Every structure is written in structure tokens, then in C-alpha cells.
Amino acid sequence: MKASRVILLVLASSLSLTLIMVAQGPKSGGSETVARPKKGSTTSAPEPAEQSKIPSQYKKGKELPEGVATYSTDAVTVTVDVSVLDNKGRFIPNIPAGNFRVLEDNVPQKISAISKGEAPLTIALVIEFSGRFQQVYSEPWFQTLQAAYGFVETLRPEDYVAIVAYDLRPEILSDFSTDRSEAQDGLRRLTFPGFSEANLFDALVDTAQRMQDIEGRKAILLISSGIDTFSKLNYGETRKAIQNAGVPIYAIGLMQAYRDILYSYGAISDSANMDFLQADNQLRTFTKESGGVAYFPRFYGQFPDIYREISGVLRSQYVLTYTPSNTARDGKFRKIKVDLVDPETNKPLSISVNGKPSKYEILAKPGYTAPKQVE
């Protein structure tokens, strides 16, 4: 009797389960499919919807679920823009590809490609315009406007230019455009300076970081006294950010003769004069470490030659491409040095200009920051 009750209870439970499954019916949108177990496995594979979800317990160093796509690449290519200038600042053309040597952390690299030629420019004019020095109708005010207007007039129709002015903070007066009327409108806004602060470091880093992803020939032309008064970034942080951005900076140091006159008449103190000398050194450091040049004109007549030299350096460059032998993705800064050598003797290359031996200068970025491992 007890056995029959057990049998009846099991049948009733099975019948109840069957009725529930029939009442629910198949899932909407089609018939239900059952994942086929893998060969040699007694468990079913997860459904496609489940494969796209990565459970939170799968972290770095742990195995991901089967079916989750992962991607990785080890390809890193470094491009270095190189200008070779004679002792008068003129570009030296037609240097054979075999004479270039690239050292990364003092290790020679194999150059995979070398190209040269002219290309349109993308230039950001970063202009100091504060009440500290550029009071209306003062000598520094005139010099600042002369330098800015004069450079814009030398640009070619296909060149892009943006105008950025800074005092307490940088302000974009006109964005990148080939329309010179936009640049002129931006420069016309340089009339009455606002704040007396001149936060050079913040303005320079902000502009360089905005430009770091722009393709092609690009540069910053900084028109500044070199004095920084109240930036959030310090000098060391600014240097590092400029190196990482990879945008060459060319600088025109303002008030060279003017401040000498003031100093000779006792209008500025020894301490203030030392501040100006330190500011000049800051401009030299920023330009050198980014692959550019700093100029310190004492007369207005020097401006056209400076514009011509900057244009020649930027438009005519050798572009070297190589794949680093150091494949570590450690996020560290790697130093780059470009030399011209005689491949037969491995000694520095001698260059003649118009049949006469000439000294030369090589301009290139000092390095780059290696990528970090993608997690």
C-alpha cells in the first residue's frame, strides 16, 4: 500500500511538471535551441547572449570565458621630422638616405623609410597679451602686434592657422582655418589686455596637447616674454608635457632691447633682470626639447628673416620612420638622437655648401613616450 502511494506521488509530480512546461510553451521569437556540448565535454557551452558578458570575477591574470574576443598588437612605429640647417639657418637638401642614423637610448635603429618635400603647415600662434607688459600703446604692445600680424601675412593660402592669446588663461581667438580673415579678426581683438597675470606654462601645454593628434606638418609659434606668473603647472611638469605632446615649438622672445634700456636707466631691478634672463632660458629649453628654435630679435627689421627661417625649416624636412628595437610597453620616455654619418667610416658626415665646408645643425624631437601595455 505504501509502495503504491509512492508511485502515485511520483506520477502526480511528473504530470504536474509536464503541465507547467506545456503551459509556458516555447520562448517568443522562435523555437528554443540547446547548445551542443563540445567534443570531450559533458557540459553545454553558454548561449550566444551569455558569451558577450564578462563576469566581474574575471580580472587581469585570470582566464576569460570561452568565446570572448581579445585583441592585441605589438606594432609600434616612430616618425621623426628632421631639419638639417647650415650655419645661416637654411635647409640643406639632397642628403642621401644612407647618411642618416637614429639612436634610441643610444641604440642604433633600422630606418624603414625616409621621405622629404614640402607640405602645408598647421600653426598655432600662442601670444602673450596681458596687462603685465602689453599695456595699450606701450613698446611691448607694438612689438607683440607687429610679430603676430607679420607672421600671419607670410603664410601660404593652404596653411592652417589658429590664434591663441593668454593672460590668466588661454583663449582661442580664432580656430584653425585657411581663411585669413578669421585670423585677422582674431588679432583685432588684441587691443586692451585683461588680467596682469601671464600664465605661460598652462597656455603652452594646453595648446600642445590639443595639437598632438593633428596629422602633417604642425608647430606652435610662441610670442612671449617667457615670464610665467601664476600657472597651475610648474616648470618640470611643463617640460614633460611638451616632450610627450610632440609638437615643435618656435619662440620669439619679446622686449630684448627694451628691457636692456630700462635696466641701464635703473628702471628695472637686478632681480627683475634675472627673471628676464631666466625666462629666455625657459624659451630655449621648451623649443629645443620639442625640436624647435628660439629667436630673440632686438630690432623690428629682424622679423622677416625669422619668419622666412621658420617657414623654411617647417616646410622642408626629412621624415624618418623606424620600428623600435625595444618592444617593451612600459610607458617610459625614450631619448632619440639623429646624426649624419659616413656609412663607410661611421664618423660624422662632412657637408659642403656651394663648394665650401659648412657647419650644420640637426633639429629633431628629443624622444617620445613608449605606449603602455593594453589591459
Termini separation comes to 67 Å
- H/E order of the elements? HHEEEEEHEEHHEHEHHEHEEEEEEE
Would you count the extended β strands for me? 17
Count helical runs: 9
The CATH topology of the largest domain: Rossmann fold
Strand order of the largest sheet: 7-6-5-8-9-10
Rg for CA atoms? 32 Å
Number of domains: 2
Per CATH, the superfamily of the largest domain is von Willebrand factor, type A domain
User: What is the CATH architecture term of the largest domain?
Assistant: 3-Layer(aba) Sandwich
Helical content band: 25-40%
General description of the model:
The longest helix has 23 residues. Helices cover 31% and strands 25% of the residues. It is globular, with a radius of gyration of 32 Å. The strands form 4 sheets. A 6-stranded mixed sheet has the order 7-6-5-8-9-10, sandwiched between helices. Strands 2, 3, 12, 13 and 17 form a 5-stranded antiparallel sheet that branches. The protein is α+β, with helices and mostly antiparallel strands and 375 residues long. The protein folds into 2 domains: 92 residues; 195 residues, von Willebrand factor, type A domain (Rossmann fold), CATH 3.40.50.
